[in-house]
Amino acid sequence: MARSKEKTPKKAKQPGRLKQMWQVFQMTRRYDSNIVWILVLAFLIPVLISLALALLIPGSNVFTMVLWIVAGVLAGILAMLIILGRRAEKAAYSQIEGQPGAVGAVLRSSLKRGWVGSEMPVAVNGKTQDAVYRAVGRGGVVLISEGPKTRTARMLDEEKRKIVRIGGNVGVTVISVGPDEDAVPLHKLARRLTRIKPTLTKAEVLAVNNRLNSMGTKLPIPKGVDPMKARPQRG
Question: Membrane-crossing residues (predicted)?
């Protein structure tokens, strides 16, 4: 009796590095009309500087000139990649900025080393969908409000009292992400955390985070806020 050979489904081929970069560039260009000129300048400036150095430095020969030009090209490519990455991140976050759970998406995917945060908020207003998130790092405890300051002030005060009661003398920093003029833009949130002056050791960060997590939270929303699937509240 002949056995039927089962064909195992082939895994979808992952796009190559160049194709991924092209896709990132195309996505960024849809939200940033100046990206082409910015990348061209980022490449040309190091090349022109290296060419000028090759011509102006006395005693240069053909070999050293070629080395200068190659160094300028490599520096230009590196500058393009760095700028493209930052502009792409800004474009990606601009798509979810203002949506419930946007801060949680940043804490889940963009926190720098040494910081601990969760996409799960520690306090939520079920009616307005304003929320407060918490991150713990070398800079102490950071409370991040999502929504207008006038609506999140009370939740922030309550969370600060809890931290003072459990965390002792740990420093608390408050950051606002919302429509206010002095609010931190969503794409700058992760970098804003790294600029906070370190006050805790790595061991203290872990201990403070464990103590705060032991408080527990009761929220009027299901766990796992997905900003890409968030639905506007019905009137």
Answer: 35-57, 63-84
